Amino acid sequence: MSACAPPRTEHSPPTTPPPRRRRFRVESADVSACIAVFLIALPLSLGIALATGAPLQAGLVAAAVGGIVAGRIGGCPLQVSGPAAGLTVVTADLIHQYGWRATCGITVLAGLAQLGLGCLKVARGALAVSPAVVHGMLAGIGITIAVAQVHIVLGGRPDSSVLTNLRALPAQLAHLDPAAVVISALTLTLLLAWPRIPDPVGSRLRKVPAALVAVVGATVTAALTGITLPRVDLPSWRSHALAGLPEGPALGIVAAVLTTTLVCSVQSLLGAVAVDKLAAGRTGPARVGRSDLDRELLGQGAANIVSGALGGLPVAGVAVRSTANVNSGAVSRNSTMLHGGLVVIAALLLVPLLEQIPLASLAALVMAVGIQMVSLNHIRTVTRHREVPVYVATTLGVVCLNVLQGVLLGIAVAVALALHRLTHTRITHEEREGVHHVRVRGQLTFLAVPRLSRALHRVPHGTRAVVELDGSFMDHAAYESLQDWRSSHTARGGSAELKDRRTGVRSAGTPSSAVCRCRPWTPWRNHRCDMPTAAMSKGAADSTGASRPDTHELARGISSFQRNTAPLVREELARLAREGQRPSQLFLTCADSRLVTSMITASGPGDLFVVRNVGNLVPPPGQEHADDSVAAAIEYAVDVLGVRSITVCGHSGCGAMQALLAAEPGAAPTPLRRWLRYGEPSLARLADGRPERPRLAPRPATDTVEELSLANVVQQLAHLRAHESVARALAAGALELHGMYFHVGEARAYLLGGEGAEGDEAEAAVFHEVREDAKEDVREAPEVGSLV
């Protein structure tokens, strides 16, 4: 014992070593990803600063702050933030109107507004903006950027107004600078040609970003040929301007803050949604969770406060850099933060090299970015959804007015278009070859009921009628009116057929006595065929002459699928037939007929590899006379299909669990009893006297059957981990295990907490309810890679 240590008595507690602090580790994938992002961000940050008219150092400040601050605090770990092309027009207008220092102050105020919105948890409200408005805003900004940079490419100086730049373009073409045109043309050529270099050489060369190659190629060419052109001028950091208080009318400053807040927030949130989709489709074991949009808004707000205070441009999520980050294999927010650190190093140590870059090269780079923002994919999307007026109005508003007024104009047109579609329904009636056709074009609401009734009453009694519905919505009043007329018309000897022109679904109004009387437009709810008594009693007789239920029920179901469902899924099933099955999950559940796996998981063809058996049991490996069917399915799913997760799902009222509880020792070994022996460890787990039994949060199990069903899920997960293929995939980090419980009577799903799912120590295994607000965001995000 050390002489300095106090003597230890028998009552002294044993000394324990202090807890070891976790060392900060950076994965190699994050290092390579941060380098790729840095090489893209460096020239683009300078180019965007040039396009706004801000000091060029402001772009580097924004890139560094966006990487470090937003990367550390934000809720989307793989999204890269920095100066964005979508903010170019807003920032340029603010600099022209208020000056640079006041623009920095407005950036700080916009960051504070973002913090407030993040604290109020309204991030998802920003996603309610119509995609046509967002695409139109980006197109308008892209046009404004491209027109302005054309003047620099031709050797001139742009004006702050798009219309002025367009009017001055003929004069600029008459006085162009040949040296600037040559360098700009070289930059554009390298930018377009680099990604198109054929393989196998191109696959290696494309690892270097095209933007970096274009700028470096133009810079080297200018230096070797001795071309005299304006170049990047980075003043000393000692003279760097910091934020100042904006001066001017309060209403104008508020509008400027709101505009900056709107564009920064919407672009960042949409970018986070797009990055989530891109990361979810990435193969490999390394995956990150879904973005916390409210936290992302807080991170963007903090970054804008710091960037504005340090004299940097406004910060937002940038899709091209984020795409490069994900595609380079980044696994955490460390890649984003390291890229910000590299920008800081470059801004301090690479100033002599950066000052060799011609401004014409940066202008050509930013002009290409602006042209790419007018995306043909976006135009096709809004055309398909019949929202071209919204897109055009927003684009022209941004070009001719400003971003905020253009967005407000687009929202107004979107609301007007929605009201027009809701209130303007065209209803026609015509007779062809003795059949009366009533066609409804548009949404069928209560406002159209009077016109619908007039058209339907033109159909004479006792005739055949076809009602064609060409819309996506029908409210209760219209439904009742249509069904009342149909009942009345068929009661008078006529026939009525409803036809949905979008899906091809037909429903006859004069059912025969031998077919199902299920009505159209009926939701899936306690669905039972309402068969006439005569038809049921008319069932085919068996060999003994005794009547039995109608044997054609299966054929009718298949016929209904071929008529109603097959046209909707044929294209997707054809794709799956070509590509083969590639499910991401193995779902092991009970054979109970009340469990519809596709319904409770909202999955479709090709999503789940499903194994069903009595009691959702997983026989442990290595037992004598063990059943290999489940083990074979597990091995095939893990080793051949490469599923990324396995879920064991139990349910309420399970007959297998009831049979386990009611089993009598020494009973005859029937096939069912032999199979249920794999559930006996679950019975032992429940009866071993543990102080905490598995339960549903926040309530305990209601009866012994439910307790055994929950314990069975935990026990079968333990059996699952004993399989060699599962253990190997878990050790490699390529597989996750999940426990699930579905309460049939309540239609509620519960997921097992981490302890029970990760290890065999499930002393207090708790199943937590999956809330409704955990659903996937189906909001259409902009195409990843369309923004810089």
Explain what you see.
- There is one protein chain.
- The protein has 788 residues and is an alpha/beta fold.
- The protein has three domains: 28-283 and 301-413, no CATH class; 424-500, STAS domain (Transcription Regulator spoIIAA, 2-Layer Sandwich), CATH 3.30.750.24; 582-755, Carbonic anhydrase (Beta-carbonic Anhydrase, Chain A), CATH 3.40.1050.
- It is built from 31 helices and 14 strands.
- Strands 9-8-10-12-13-14-11 form a seven-stranded mixed beta sheet. Strands 3-4-5-6-7 form a five-stranded mixed beta sheet. It has a two-stranded antiparallel ribbon with strand order 1-2.
- A hairpin with a 4-residue loop joins strand 12 (736-743) and strand 13 (748-752).
- Helix 2 (56-73) packs antiparallel against helix 12, helix 3 (88-98) crosses helix 4 (100-119) and helix 6 (131-153) runs antiparallel to helix 16.
- The chain starts with 27 loop residues before the first helix and ends in a 19-residue tail after the last strand.
- It comes from Streptomyces bauhiniae.
- Its cofactor is Zn(2+).
- The chain crosses the membrane at residues 29-51, 98-120, 132-154, 174-197, 209-230, 250-275, 337-354, 360-379, 391-419.
- It holds the Pfam family Sulfate_transp.
- It is a multi-pass membrane protein.
